[in-house]
Target: Enoyl-CoA hydratase/isomerase family protein
Amino acid sequence: MQDAEVLTEVRGQIGCITLNRPRALNALSLGMVRTLFATLQAWDQNPQVLAIAIRGSNKEGPFGAFCAGGDIRFLHQGATQGDPRVEDFFTEEYILNHLTHHLSKPYIAFMDGVVMGGGMGISQGASLRIVTERTKMAMPETGIGLFPDVGGGYFLSRCPGHAGEWLALTGETIGAQQAVALHLADAILPSEKLAEVWEALGQQSFADGAAVQSWVASQTVAAGAEQAGVRAEFDQYFSLPDVSAIIAALEASEGDWERATAATLRQRSPLMLHVVLQQIRRARGMTLAEDLRMERDLVRHCFHLRPGESETLEGIRALAIDKDRNPQWKPARIEEVDPQLVQAFFTSPWPQALHPLARLA
Model:
């Protein structure tokens, strides 16, 4: 089983999961999604398993990288060739994301190294989200003409103030301190302690799941004073009514942060920036299940309902296929996006009762 993309074992009273696709930074394949779902469901119903812990691996061994997202090469190839597994991937991934938020026992995510996209989707539902000084966290989807899915609308919209809009639109990477400050992580564990804590989990005897989580939490360190530095700029600019107003205000400023942020936004898909801002703001009033249904609609539009004009396929092409890093966005500028084009993304292609995620509650 050491060659498997997901390693699972029960050690003592703990169900232990290791993502084991290090050369791809543990990017999720459809097989991995299916293994994770089946494993979590089985262990959640197993009284011998008091808690579940999940980690990633790098080329040298455990930890070092958590999960860089979904397998975008597979998604590009599958979508261009009409592979039905692309549809399966998103439906099953979102059902997995929903499950992680609704487990009946502690689910502890060791979010060391890269935690992006789909990696956020399988960790944000954890009851204890641990980061380290090596954590690089982001939802960078606007850079490939996509949107922060896997429940991103739900968890980003619940960041303090309008930080969620900033993270969703720019795709900026944050570290451990800021992750805690923005309510995307619960505690910090120095990376040199990861192996020790993980090994001890499988060797100790615990009274119940709460005791497991309490013990792990006791091994973490407090976030430093830096976490107070949640920038007022997030609210000043990213509370504005639309993307055109945000970019205009940023470019009118002479501040370094504002100019750098504006330059970043100018590199992203203009159309998807408008879609994403609506996604985050709509999701603030939604349950997780409602948000995931909206995101399933959005991803259908991204990959299948704009023939020959998929921002997502163009973004993946530029980043991972041709690697020219020069996507040809349509429209090319933020100011040129037709509001009707944006609204079309929020029209579900399915009747309510036949939605792929209709059963999520």
Remarks:
- The mean pLDDT is 95.
- The beta strands are 6-11, 14-19, 51-55, 57-58, 61-62, 107-111, 114-116, 128-131, 136-138, 187-188.
- The CA atoms of residues 1 and 71 lie 21 Å apart.
- Residues 85-100 form the longest helix (16 residues).
